[in-house]
């Protein structure tokens, strides 16, 4: 202890009292009751308060990183799809998840963020799974479990995205948006082909959010849907990097410039392409598209057979003289093999003197979901059997494991897959490619048909499964991209909607709304002198480029 004279001690106490009276912070107040100048009790409380503040800020930061930001990405994506249709939000949707991944201190945090983002997205966008299973006779508990389980399983996509996004940080902020977008493309491509050999649900592609913006969508004729998904992913990540980088504002703006150039380039290309239809001559095929709007869950009830037939007869009376009448998937109140139905169809063909494309179940050479081409005398000329069946709707994947827990929802049980290579329907000089229901989400199926000479697509479906949910709208929009990718007109006949004619540039020329009972009489243009689009010719070249870009940088990120 230091000894000081009494007068000096009084002076020191006076100075400390003066300091205490003027100090705004208790941490700066001296304890005048001790010989040393320690912190007062108020100062200790202040330190504890500061420690608590830091703890709360850390907790909120963790909550934001793991839950709030990933969930915000999910919300933006959900709002980008039908029925909200706010597709412009998709350009920013990946920004919150990007920030979350960059703020993650370890791989575990990044994976949790991916799980939250994926689960929330699929839980929100696939809400109709619950109502579909419920309407199909599955009890409430199993329906809810199915919805939750599917959402959880599909969230693996986002977990994988978060994983490579975390390790990709090693490449630095400049390369990150490009390589991340390439990885996103590879994931979308992989889930399409995973379904070819295994089980997945590739219903949603990021590019599908732009279905209303035809100028933007034209790029898919060059790159396939994957090019548009790349653009959206790239811009979203770049937007996230804007908030992560601590550079000056001008530097941030300059680093974001590639997104503006990309969007501008897409608009210029789209504007050019949308003017091309007037440069090519077209021939027309006349179609009458039936939309009977029959309750799917009455379809196989015998007491409704006559009512269904009379309902279809009423629509046939409204058809104009056309080359082809198109019926939806499973439109007949029975199997097409039944003698009574064969006789009915023959009378229709003779009366209207038109060919018919009819969707029906068949069990002649196996049990198939099929499309039949009947000539104007009612004779079956060609048959197409569905190549991609709907999991749990038309077959049970992993049947040895799952058969004890769940059966197919459809009333007719399980079906067999059709051969991948089947003959196209031929009407006059035109070749028609078929896609039944779920098959329209697989780009390679329709592209392969074009390479084999298809002039036009016919997609028949029965979306009555999904009731009045967003699912029929989600299902309809993918057809716009198949038409643009291959520059082929597409006829769509849906039991309860949405039926439509889509031209090769994605314009919906005519359509019937959901649950509308009507006929759509259309002239579908065929541009034979257009030839093949770049995508039809070269396929998934863009995916290959993304593979090279992604692979090279990931090697650097992981190894070095």
What does this structure look like?
The protein is an alpha/beta fold and 560 residues long. The protein contains 19 helices and twelve strands. The strands form two sheets. It has a six-stranded mixed sheet, with helices on one face. The two termini are 58 Å apart.
Gist of the model:
The chain is of the alpha/beta class and 560 residues long. It is built from 19 helices and twelve strands. It has a six-stranded mixed β-sheet, with helices on one face.
On the 0-100 scale, what is the average pLDDT? 85
Q: Please estimate the helix content.
A: 40-55%
User: How would you sum up the global shape?
Assistant: globular
Q: How far apart are the first and last residues' alpha carbons, in Å?
A: 58 Å
Poorly predicted runs of 5 or more residues? 23-39
Within the largest sheet, what's the order of strands?
A: 5-4-3-2-1-12
Secondary structure class reads alpha/beta
Largest beta-sheet characterization:
6 strands, mixed
Number of strands: 12
The radius of gyration is 31 Å
Count helical runs: 19
Query: In what range is the share of β-strand residues?
Result: 5-15%
Give the helix/strand layout.
Layout lengths: L5 H17 L18 H40 L14 H9 L3 H19 L2 H8 L4 H15 L1 H12 L8 H22 L16 H4 L2 H4 L1 H20 L4 H25 L9 E9 L13 H12 L7 E3 L12 H14 L2 E8 L5 E7 L5 E6 L13 H4 L22 E3 L2 E7 L6 H9 L4 E6 L9 H16 L3 E5 L4 E4 L5 E5 L5 E9 L7 H5 L2 H19 L1
Parallel strand pairs: 1-2, 2-3, 7-8, 8-9
Antiparallel strand pairs: 1-12, 3-4, 4-5, 6-7, 9-10, 10-11
Helix pairs in contact: 2-3, 2-4, 3-4, 3-11, 4-6, 4-7, 5-6, 7-8, 8-11, 8-19, 11-12
